[in-house]
Amino acid sequence: RAEGRGAWVTATREAVEEAVRRKAFARSLKTDVRVPDDLAGLTRLHLEQRFLGSLGLARKAGQLVTGHAKVREALARGEAIALLTATDAAADGRQKLLGLARSLGIADTLPHLELVASSQLGLALGLDNVIHAALTRGAAAQSALARAQRLARFITPKETI
């Protein structure tokens, strides 16, 4: 209950699972603490919800485009700050957009994130299944990108990011 009391865990699935397994929260807080067995799963769900919510805000701010053709245009005009692809996207569509990014010389600097399925993207944006999307310049898009990267770090081991 004291100010400043807390337990810090690196925001990766492996670290959270290890902390639960080792009862690190109880040791850190010096009291009996009961955490859900699937704390890592709940954390991922929360991170996904925050990411998807931020995508909705970016769309309302006009800083998110969806659909293969609009994403191609945003890439070609140099407006895209991140490329989002649904995890269940077809390989050829993904490769076409990544090939365009390579030909424009931005493939190494443009974040490409595959974090959620098309149905989740569509539901969050109020559209039918969204396969491809691009975040464009703006504060809402930057916030969405930060949340996407936080989710990506949680899902993916650091060596592969």
Count of helical stretches: 7
Mean pLDDT over the residues: 91
> What is the string of helix and strand elements?
HHHEHEHEHEH
3D shape: elongated
Give helix % range.
Answer: 40-55%
- Poorly predicted residue ranges: none
Q: From the alpha carbons, calculate the radius of gyration and give it in angstroms.
A: 18 Å
Structural class: alpha+beta
Q: Bin the strand percentage.
A: 5-15%
C-alpha termini separation:
37 Å
Largest pleated sheet? 4 strands, mixed
Extended strand count: 4
How are the strands of the biggest sheet laid out side by side? 1-4-2-3
Tell me about this structure:
The chain is α+β, with helices and mostly antiparallel strands. It has 7 helices and 4 strands, in the order H-H-H-E-H-E-H-E-H-E-H. The chain has helices at 13-21, 24-29, 39-60, 68-77, 91-103, 118-125, 139-155; strands at 64-66, 80-85, 112-113, 132-136. Strands 1-4-2-3 form a 4-stranded mixed sheet, with helices on both faces. Helix 5 links the parallel strand 2 (80-85) and strand 3 (112-113). The longest helix is centred in the N-terminal third of the chain and has 22 residues, at 39-60. The chain is elongated and about 55 Å long. 26% of the residues are buried. The mean pLDDT is 91.
